[in-house]
Amino acid sequence: MKEIENVKPIIVKKSDDLLDIDALIIPGGESTTIGDLIFYRKLDEKIIKFASEGKPILGTCAGAILLAKKVIDRVVGETGQKTLGLMNITIVRNIFGRQKDSFITDVETKIGKLKVAFIRAPGIMFYHL
Questions:
Q1: CATH number of the domain enclosing 52
Q2: Distances (CA, A) of 11 to 31, 37, 50, 89
Q3: Residue 73: burial class (beta carbons within 10 Å; 0-12, 13-18, 19+)
Q4: Are strands 68-73 and 87-93 parallel, antiparallel or unpaired?
Q5: Number of domains in the chain
Q6: pTM of the predicted model as reported, rounded to 2 decimal places
Q7: Is 71 helix (H, G, I), strand (E, B) or coil?
Q8: Which tens digit of pLDDT belongs to each residue from 118-129?
């Protein structure tokens, strides 16, 4: 991986990998699978401790689902999905449709025509005080 301005990305696969990092990104993907791996490898407690130390965590798409206090599905409602519960939000999975609703198209922009992908994504519906 390319080093950018003294930032070296590290892939976190086990709890000891969290010891040498200053921030964490939980990426998009399949939130159930990523969550299963986090809990199976006992990373959940380490990630929660990491957050309690004031270290930043960014969750994109599936990562946001895993950071939420509560997860529901647009169609089926309550999912019972295990999360890290670090953000006081409720996420609605598949709010813009299922995977089959994703598509690629050309979009005209100021810089010309671009091929873009529109993927299903979660929505943040509620903020819990």
A1: 3.40.50.880
A2: 17, 14, 16, 26
A3: middle
A4: parallel
A5: 1
A6: 0.81
A7: strand
A8: 888 889 987 766
